[in-house]
């Protein structure tokens, strides 16, 4: 079942045959492969390279293959080299001699390139939708929880923020992720079909027709580049890696926040697991897996970058190795986005523990310094004064807000009764640009 036996005197080694076959991996391109072939037949008819009757026969044959696959009457397996061979051989078996005209003015090199672009385009839209779902869930959880929590730098309590503002930071990351994918999609929106093996074809084909039917902006400008370009996969895998980096950071926070030490959130039972030995354990496996799978997605990107780096123009069989990393990167990113959306939707927020952590952290120290500045103290001096007030509080095991006015005045004479208003955590959120934290 080969497409190229003619110039060979001897049979291919069996081991080599299975080593060479990509069918198990590229079978998922079947819809794109048939769509590409349907557009190619239409173009061959319009360019008068095959007759209308031949075209009709091929289109009916291709559609019957599609229908049989969808109805589970035809299974994509067997000793075919790849999905392109599978479809072509099946077409010839179904419609006979006319089927042998399908591959006129086409090579598997431009065929696989068009299949992958179509598939990558379709799946990128799915990733964008999954990102949007996560954004909606983040926004909803954020709006429901405008509660105060410690904001951290160096993982040390720094200043008061809100859980809402913290979650919305991830919303922004996801927004950039969508724009990056959109950009990659617009760059890759060119039709490689018609490049042939590498040098076009002597037939008078019309690449605008296939571009239009397949929904591409335009045909590629350069044939050698058209068949050997895998930038669009690398670019999407870079976008997916950045998406995963964001999901991994969020996972890390959920893992920390759900620990006994923090107890800020609770990941729902549905997305946690237990330990086989320690009966009390409730582990955040879902978030840990997302964090772990991030490494896998980075690895896929590195794998294809490395595959491509030394390849001369144009097509080389090495490029068949683009599929596993791309598909894995795509599938992993999609499933992680879906799981993260579920984790967020079902997340329980422990308002009291967040508030208590705010109180225990001198998180109004910067507000106190700002207060002193308003009373005429230069900021650098105010910083020093507040530092000594914090030491006093530590020595007396008190929060700044627990000090009496006498104590405060003894530490800094410019402090007045209005200080309490100023260092109140909730009220400080309405002051200045900080009010954005509760918007
Ligand atoms: N299975 C091949 C791939 O994925 C299709 C192109 C084969 N072209 C060739 N000249 N052998 O790259």
Would you report the number of β strands? 6
* Rg: 31 Å
- Gross CATH architecture of the largest domain: Up-down Bundle
CATH topology of the largest domain: Fumarase C, Chain A, domain 2
CATH homologous superfamily title of the largest domain = Fumarase/aspartase (Central domain)
Question: Which CATH C-level class of the largest domain is it?
Answer: Mainly Alpha
Q: In percent terms, what proportion of residues is strand?
A: under 5%
Number of domains: 3
Task: Calculate the terminal CA-CA distance, rounded to whole Å.
Answer: 65 Å
Query: What general outline do the C-alpha atoms trace?
Result: elongated
Walkthrough of the structure:
The protein has helices at residues 14-20, 23-26, 30-46, 52-70, 83-95, 108-144, 163-187, 207-214, 223-228, 231-257, 285-308, 323-345, 351-359, 365-374, 379-396, 405-411, 419-423, 425-428; strands at residues 148-153, 156-162, 190-191, 218-219, 265-266, 348-349. Helix content is 60%, strand content 5%. By secondary structure, it is mostly helical. It is elongated, with a radius of gyration of 31 Å. The protein folds into 3 domains: 14-101, Orthogonal Bundle (Fumarase C, Chain B, domain 1), CATH 1.10.275.10; 117-190 and 229-355, Fumarase/aspartase (Central domain) (Fumarase C, Chain A, domain 2), CATH 1.20.200; 365-423, Orthogonal Bundle (Ribonucleotide Reductase Protein R1, domain 1), CATH 1.10.40.30. Helix 8 links the parallel strand 3 (190-191) and strand 4. The strands form 3 sheets. The chain has a two-stranded antiparallel sheet with strand order 1-2. The protein contains 18 helices and 6 strands. It starts with 13 loop residues before the first helix and ends in an 11-residue tail after the last helix. Arginine (ARG) is lined by residues 22, 26, 82, 108-109, 112, 315, 317, 319-320.
